[in-house]
Every structure is written in structure tokens, then in C-alpha cells.
Design brief:
alpha/beta; Rossmann fold; seven-stranded parallel β-sheet; 8 helices; globular
């Protein structure tokens, strides 16, 4: 599972927050490097404010991202690419052309679910160049008590892409730890539930 592209088709899906926490969890299981391919540079900003020296490295994407990712993969167990929030962005298209896995966070909202249709098409197009590409949808920022959250897995079953068994719940600790330059792994007992679900998602990714 050396190269993972975290992609989406709209802003606000929690893509960078998920990327940071996945990378933090993976860094505890082996070396990982992150490539920030999102022009907003949120992963780079997080790394700049991180106050601990052992935080995983975050690199700005360069013009030869395929070579950049493959070079990092020689030195790290995993490479994670934080892509822009659009499947039509050139950085996303490039990443899907060589990534091993595309991880797609989807919020349980009508707009996010509609946008997933575009992602399904983008994955199919990317497989023409990269036939070994695998994709995994992950329900992100789930609020279990809402009606839509209860229906979201049923709706996603209509998409021809697999859905992760674990769902990432909406928790304040994800936002608060990121603001502190930390991940949920760095905040002790208040991040315990979040750590459990991130680790479960990592285990699912390892089976892709």
C-alpha cells in the first residue's frame, strides 16, 4: 500500500483532516511521507505549526509528482497524497494516474453524495492509464442520529465503488487537534475513540 491518494470532489469533506490523522496513525506503524498537492496547502500549514519533532514529513507537490512520489516510496513504507477537492484538478488527475489506492471521503449530505457520481467516473477514466488503481469510499463526519446518516451507506451502495466498513464520526477532537498542530493520536484519552476508528480504517486500507 505504498501510494495513497486522498481525493474528493468538493471542499469541506474533511479530506485534509482525514489525511493528517491517517498519516499520523500510519507513522506509528512504519515510515510515511505526505505530499500536499492541494493549492490551499493545508497539510503543509499543519506541519508548520506542529510542535513535535517526530511529526511525519510533508512535502509540497512538485511538477513531477509521479517521480516525487515514487522516490519517496523508496524511503518510506507509505506515501499519502493530499489532493485538491476536485477530481478535475490536474494534480488529482495526475495522482490517480499512478496511485495504488484512491481514498474518497464522503460526507452524509446530498451535495456530497451527488458529487460522488463524478468521482466514480474519474476513477473509471484513471483506470485506463492505471489499471491496478483501487478505490475506497469512506463515510466521513458521520452523525449517527440523523436520518441521512442512517441512509448514506444504502445510497453509496448504488455507486460502483467499495465502501469502507468503518465510518469516521464527526468529533470535535479532529478539528481541535489539527488547530494545535497535532493529530488525534497526540492528545491522550480525549482522542481515544477517534484513534480507534482511524486505526480500523488503516487496517481496511491494508487489505486493498
Amino acid at each position: 500500500m505504498p501510494i495513497i491518494a486522498v481525493v474528493g470532489n468538493k471542499g469541506g469533506a474533511g479530506k485534509t483532516t482525514l489525511s493528517i490523522n491517517l498519516a499520523s496513525g500510519m507513522s506509528r506503524q512504519g515510515g510515511i511521507a505526505v505530499i500536499d498537492a492541494d493549492p490551499q496547502g493545508s497539510s503543509l500549514h499543519w506541519r508548520a505549526v506542529a510542535n513535535h519533532e517526530d511529526a511525519f514529513p510533508v512535502h509540497s507537490a512538485n511538477g513531477a509528482m509521479r517521480d516525487q512520489a515514487r522516490d519517496l516510496a523508496l524511503h518510506y513504507q507509505d506515501v499519502l497524497i493530499d489532493c485538491p477537492p476536485s477530481v478535475h484538478a490536474p494534480q488529482t488527475i495526475a495522482a490517480l494516474g499512478f496511485a495504488d489506492v484512491a481514498l474518497i471521503p464522503v460526507q452524509p449530505s446530498p451535495v456530497d453524495l451527488w458529487a460522488t457520481v463524478h468521482i466514480e467516473r474519474a476513477i473509471a477514466e484513471a483506470k485506463a492509464e492505471n489499471p491496478s488503481l483501487k478505490a475506497l469510499l469512506v463515510i466521513n463526519q458521520l452523525e449517527s442520529r440523523t436520518t441521512l446518516s442512517g441512509l448514506v451507506r444504502e445510497v453509496l451502495d448504488e455507486i460502483a465503488l467499495p465502501v469502507a466498513q468503518v465510518a469516521i464520526r464527526r468529533r470535535a477532537v479532529y478539528r481541535n487537534s489539527a488547530l494545535e498542530g497535532k493529530s488525534v493520536f497526540d492528545v491522550g484519552s480525549r482522542g481515544a475513540d477517534a484513534v480507534e476508528e482511524i486505526n480500523a480504517l488503516i487496517q481496511e486500507l491494508k487489505t486493498q
